C-alpha cells in the first residue's frame, strides 16, 4: 500500500470516516482512484487505512483504524458483523431488510438490501468497486443468495468516475418479487425499481401512521410521490375511506395498481406531477384529512441546497393549504444535506406563510436497519415529521 501523510491542520475525530483533500500533504495526483492506502499523521504515527479518490473533496474514506491486511476475511467479518446486528434486532428475518449500510457498517460506499433470498447491491464508490470481487465472494459464502443484482444506477457514481448500470451479477431472478411488510404484500421491482426496489427506511414511520389512523375519523388520504404505494397500502390496513396516490411515473402508477390488487384494496392512482396536482387541488378547493409528502431527495449536493429548499417549501405550503382542519401532514426529506433543524425551521416558515397552526406529533428517522453512526452525523439522512393541524 502507498502512504498518505496528513498535514498539520488535520485534527483526528473519534470514529469519523472521512478525510478531506485539504487535510492531505503532497500531490493527490500520484494516487489511482479507489486505491487502498495507509494514512499517517504529520508526526509519522499510523492513523488508518482507507481508499483514496484524488478527484473528490472527500479524498479518503476510512475502512480500518487498525494496521491490517484488507482481504476477503477482513471484508467477510465486516459483513457478518452487520448481519448479526440485524439478526439481534429481528430485522434480518423480515422479507425486506437493509443488511449493510455504507459508513454505518464501516465500509463506505457499500449498500446491500435483502428481499427474501435475493440481494440488491449498490457500490457507490471507486474504492468499493475495486474490492467488490472479494466482497462478492464473502457475501455468497455468508448468505448463499438465489441471486445478486447490482443496482448501480445512482448518479453518485458519476462523481466517482464510474459508469451507471444494472445487471444480475449472480444467479437468476425475475424483475418482480413479492415481499410482505407488516401484513401488507408488495411487488418489488429488483431491476427497474427506484433505489433498490422498495423504500425500506420508512418502515417504522408507516407503522406509526397506522396507530394514529386508528383513533381518527378521517375520510380522505392523499399519498404524494407514492412510488409503489407503501404509505397508502399500510394506511389501508386500518383505514376504510378514500385513498389517492399521485406519482409522475408510469411504472410507479402500474406498481401501485398491482399492489392494490394484490392486497384486495381500492386505491386511486393518478399519474401527475405532484406540484401541479397540489396546485389544482387548491384551485378546486379540495381538502384532504391526511397528506403524505415523501419526495425524492431535492438536494443532491451542497451546490443544490438553495434550489432544493425552494422545492421542499413549495410542496409543504401547497399541502398545508389543502389540509382539512384537524388534519395530519406527514412530510419527509431524504436529503442528507437537509439537516433536521433546517427542515423544522422550513416547516415553521410554511406554517407562518399559510397561516395554519400545527403541533408536532412525532419526528421519525430511518429504521434501525439503516443505523445512524454517532460519530458520523451524515449517516442520518431521513427526516419524517408528523404534523397535526390545530386551527
Describe the protein in words.
The chain is α/β, with parallel strands linked by helices and 391 residues long. The chain folds into 3 domains: 2-64, PUA domain (Archaeosine Trna-guanine Transglycosylase, Chain: A, domain 4, Roll); 72-173, 2-Layer Sandwich (Transcription Regulator spoIIAA); 198-389, Rossmann fold. It is 29% helix and 29% strand. It is built from 9 helices and 19 strands. The chain has helices spanning 72-89, 126-143, 156-159, 203-213, 230-235, 250-262, 274-283, 305-321, 340-354; strands spanning 2-5, 18-20, 36-40, 46-52, 58-64, 96-101, 110-115, 118-123, 147-152, 165-171, 176-181, 184-189, 220-224, 242-247, 268-271, 288-293, 323-333, 358-364, 383-389. Strands 15-14-13-16-17-19-18 form a 7-stranded mixed sheet, with helices on both faces.
Number of domains: 3
As for the CATH topology of the largest domain, it is Rossmann fold
The overall average pLDDT, rounded, is 95
CATH homolog superfamily of the largest domain: Vaccinia Virus protein VP39
End-to-end Cα distance, whole Å, is 64 Å
Structural class designation: alpha/beta
By DSSP (H or I, 4+ residues per run), the number of helices equals 9
Spatial strand sequence of the major β-sheet: 15-14-13-16-17-19-18
β-sheet strand percentage: 25-35%
**Order of SSEs, N→C?**
EEEEEHEEEHEHEEEHEHEHEHEHEHEE
Topology, number of strands:
19
Quick structural overview:
The protein contains 9 helices and 19 strands.
Helices and strands in order, then pairings?
Elements: E1 2-5, E2 18-20, E3 36-40, E4 46-52, E5 58-64, H1 72-89, E6 96-101, E7 110-115, E8 118-123, H2 126-143, E9 147-152, H3 156-159, E10 165-171, E11 176-181, E12 184-189, H4 203-213, E13 220-224, H5 230-235, E14 242-247, H6 250-262, E15 268-271, H7 274-283, E16 288-293, H8 305-321, E17 323-333, H9 340-354, E18 358-364, E19 383-389
Parallel strand pairs: 1-3, 8-9, 13-14, 13-16, 14-15, 16-17
Antiparallel strand pairs: 2-5, 3-4, 4-5, 6-7, 7-8, 9-10, 11-12, 17-19, 18-19
Helix pairs in contact: 1-2, 7-8, 8-9
Amino acid at each position: 500500500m502507498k502512504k498518505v501523510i496528513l498535514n498539520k491542520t488535520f485534527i483526528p475525530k473519534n470514529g469519523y470516516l472521512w478525510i478531506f483533500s485539504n487535510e492531505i500533504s503532497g500531490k493527490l495526483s500520484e494516487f489511482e482512484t479507489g486505491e487502498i492506502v495507509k494514512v499517517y499523521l504529520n508526526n509519522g504515527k499510523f492513523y488508518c487505512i482507507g481508499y483514496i479518490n484524488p478527484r473528490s473533496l472527500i479524498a479518503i474514506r476510512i475502512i480500518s483504524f487498525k494496521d491490517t491486511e484488507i482481504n476477503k476475511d477482513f471484508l467477510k467479518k465486516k459483513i457478518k458483523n452487520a448481519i448479526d446486528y440485524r439478526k439481534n434486532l429481528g430485522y434480518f428475518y423480515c422479507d425486506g431488510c437493509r443488511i449493510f449500510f455504507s459508513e454505518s457498517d464501516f465500509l463506505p460506499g457499500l449498500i446491500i438490501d435483502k428481499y427474501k433470498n435475493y440481494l440488491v447491491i449498490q457500490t457507490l464508490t471507486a474504492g468499493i468497486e475495486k474490492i467488490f470481487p472479494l466482497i462478492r465472494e464473502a457475501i455468497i459464502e455468508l448468505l448463499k443468495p438465489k441471486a445478486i443484482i447490482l443496482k448501480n444506477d445512482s448518479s453518485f457514481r458519476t462523481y466517482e468516475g464510474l459508469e451507471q448500470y444494472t445487471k444480475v451479477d449472480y444467479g437468476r431472478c425475475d424483475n418482480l418479487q413479492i415481499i410482505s411488510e407488516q401484513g401488507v404484500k408488495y411487488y418489488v421491482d429488483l431491476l427497474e425499481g427506484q433505489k433498490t426496489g422498495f423504500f425500506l427506511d420508512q418502515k417504522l414511520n408507516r407503522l406509526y401512521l397506522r396507530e394514529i389512523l386508528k383513533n381518527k375519523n378521517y375520510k380522505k388520504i392523499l399519498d404524494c410521490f407514492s412510488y409503489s404505494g407503501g404509505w397508502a397500502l399500510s394506511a389501508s390496513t386500518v383505514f376504510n375511506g378514500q385513498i389517492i396516490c399521485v406519482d409522475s411515473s408510469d411504472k410507479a402508477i402500474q406498481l401501485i395498481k398491482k399492489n392494490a390488487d394484490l392486497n384486495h384494496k381500492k386505491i386511486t392512482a393518478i399519474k401527475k406531477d405532484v406540484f401541479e396536482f397540489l396546485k389544482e387541488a387548491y384551485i378546486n378547493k379540495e381538502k384532504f384529512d391526511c397528506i403524505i409528502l415523501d419526495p425524492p431527495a431535492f438536494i443532491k449536493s451542497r451546490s443544490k441546497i438553495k434550489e432544493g429548499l425552494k422545492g421542499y417549501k413549495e410542496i409543504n405550503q401547497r399541502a398545508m393549504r389543502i389540509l382539512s382542519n384537524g388534519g395530519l401532514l406527514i412530510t419527509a426529506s431524504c436529503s442528507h444535506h437537509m439537516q433536521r433543524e433546517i427542515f423544522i425551521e422550513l416547516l415553521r416558515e410554511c406554517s407562518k406563510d399559510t397561516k395554519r397552526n400545527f403541533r408536532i406529533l412525532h419526528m421519525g428517522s430511518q429504521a434501525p436497519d439503516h443505523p445512524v453512526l454517532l460519530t458520523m452525523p451524515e449517516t442520518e439522512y431521513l427526516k419524517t415529521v408528523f404534523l397535526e393541524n390545530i386551527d
